[in-house]
Amino acid sequence: MMLVRHGQTPTTGRVLPGRAPGLHLSERGREQAEAVAERLAGVPVSAIYTSPLERTRETAAPAERAAGLTARTEEGLTECDFGDWTGRELAGLAKLPEWGTVQRAPSSFRFPHGESFSHMQARAVDAVDRLREAHPGGVVLCFSHADPLKAVLAHALGTHLDLFQRIVVDPCSVSVIVHRPGQAPSVARVNSTDGPLAPLVPS
Length: 203
What we know:
Blueprint: E1 2-5, E2 15-16, H1 27-39, E3 45-50, H2 54-67, E4 72-73, E5 88-89, H3 90-93, H4 98-104, H5 117-134, E6 139-144, H6 146-157, E7 174-178, E8 186-192
Helix pairs in contact: 1-2, 5-6
C-alpha cells in the first residue's frame, strides 16, 4: 500500500481548505505530481484510488498515465471535514484556545459542525483496508490528504491518535505500508520525497 499526499496548492501551509471545492494544484504541485509518477518506474501498480477532491485527482493523473490505469474515487480517502474552520487561515486558528487540543489531544476534538479526528481515522483506515483486501498481494496507490494519511500511519504503527500530529507527511510524499498474511502491518517508509520507489515493493 503506497499512500501519497496531494501536491502543493496556492494555499498549502496557510489555509485550512478542507473539502471546499475548486482548489487546484499550483505549478509546483504539478511538478511534484510528475515527479511521483517518475518515481513509480518499475512498480507493478495494481490499482489507483483518490480522494474525490480536485487536488488529489490532479496529483494522481501523471501516475495514471505512467501505470496505464484509471484512478477510482474513494470517499473514505477524502479530507477531514473541518466544518466552520474550513477556509480559515492557520495563523488565526493557531490563536484559538481549541488549537492546543487539536495538537495535543486530537482524539477528543470535533471540528465545529464538522468531523472528529476519531471518525476521520476510522473511515480512512476502513477505506485503506477495503482497498488492500480488494487487491490481495498487489500494490495499491492511494492519493489523499495530510491528516487522513497521518491517521492511517499512526494506526499502522500502533500509535495512539493523540500522537499522530508528530508524523510528517509533506506534499507529494509517499509512505509505504506492507501487509503480510497473519502479521501486523509494517511501515516501510514515511514521508519519502525522492528516489525510486520500486525497491520498497516487497519481493
